[in-house]
Design brief:
Layout (H helix, E strand, L loop, with lengths): L9 E3 L20 E6 L7 H10 L10 E3 L4 E3 L20 H6 L3 H4 E6 L7 H18 L8 E3 H4 L8 H6 L4 H16 L11 E9 L3 E4 L9 E5 L4 E8 L11 E3 L5 E3 L3 E3 L2
Parallel strand pairs: 1-4, 2-5, 2-6, 3-5
Antiparallel strand pairs: 3-4, 7-10, 7-13, 8-9, 10-11, 11-12
Helix pairs in contact: 4-7
The protein binds zinc ion.
């Protein structure tokens, strides 16, 4: 794989160096994983955050590489648009980053900040947030299913991000990880209908217990609707996956013979 769909532009707006926030040290040994953050400051935009960092660049050492809102993706510490440098986005004292990835996040991870709340369009900001993490996996040969960790996982006693920010956008962390993986597959061309999903082959017949949407190609509430069924309609399935969008906490979806999907919670098995 050699190309990645360039859906968005990454805008470099580097902090001055040397400074506390940007000492200008190369990542070592290199980019090995990604930490998903949110700003913790509802309503602040990517531009607001980078401006604040620049103005206070010698007051604190906290920093991150990327800020994402609905309008732009700003890179304030070089990682994509210049040789990757360290940012200070996870404290060194916590053990989980070393355990999971063999390195401290500040030495070897890209810090990506999600802006949320206030006047920020949550869906558009989310799309950019998902894309930039998928792109980071592509650029640095990381596995989107293994090499992303939320800040709250690495520093559970002090942090809740990006869960808090995602919740304000009606999303959760598990969904984020799945969406980054799907975006990665789409942008690298790895996605081929439902084949990229882990599908368990099994067939049977079910009856709809709700007005049921058949989703085109993906077990996702965001996928286009191929057909709407009424209560009592009978339909056949040819497999199922647990990697669908969770609806009421249930992420198992059936696949039909056309490669489309419907949520298992909206049907009962026959006989
Ligand atoms: Zn954080």
């Amino acid at each position: 794989m050699s190309e990645f769909k360039q859906k968005y532009i990454i805008t470099p707006r580097y902090l001055s160096t040397p400074s506390k926030r940007r000492p200008g040290r190369a990542m070592s040994p290199g980019v090995r994983f990604i930490v998903a953050h949110d700003t913790g400051n509802p309503g602040s935009t990517a531009g607001d955050n980078v401006r604040y960092y620049e103005n206070s660049r010698n007051e604190q050492s906290a920093s991150a590489h990327i800020f994402v809102d609905h309008r732009e993706i700003i890179e304030c510490i070089p990682v994509f648009t210049g040789p990757p440098e360290k940012a200070w986005h996870v404290i060194y004292g916590v053990p989980t980053d070393d355990k999971m990835f063999g390195h401290d996040a500040n030495d070897a991870a890209i810090g990506v900040e999600y802006c949320y709340g206030g006047g920020i369009d949550a869906d558009e900001a989310y799309r950019k947030y998902v894309w930039i993490m998928a792109y980071a996996c592509f650029r640095f040969s990381l596995d989107p299913r293994q090499h992303i960790a939320g800040h709250f996982i690495l520093d559970p006693n002090r942090k809740t991000d990006p869960v808090t920010g995602l919740a304000r956008s009606r999303r959760n962390y598990e969904q984020l990880l799945r969406d980054v993986a799907l975006e990665f597959d789409e942008c690298t061309g790895a996605a081929t209908g439902g084949n990229a999903l882990p599908i368990t082959r099994e067939s049977g017949t079910v009856t709809a217990t709700v007005r049921l949407n058949i989703r085109q190609g993906k077990p996702s509430t965001l996928a286009p609707i191929a057909q709407v069924l009424s209560v009592g309609d009978v339909l056949a399935y040819t497999g199922w996956t647990d990697a669908g969008d969770p609806v009421n906490g249930n992420s198992r979806w059936y696949q039909d013979g056309n490669g489309n999907f419907f949520w298992t919670g909206g049907v009962v098995k026959q006989g």
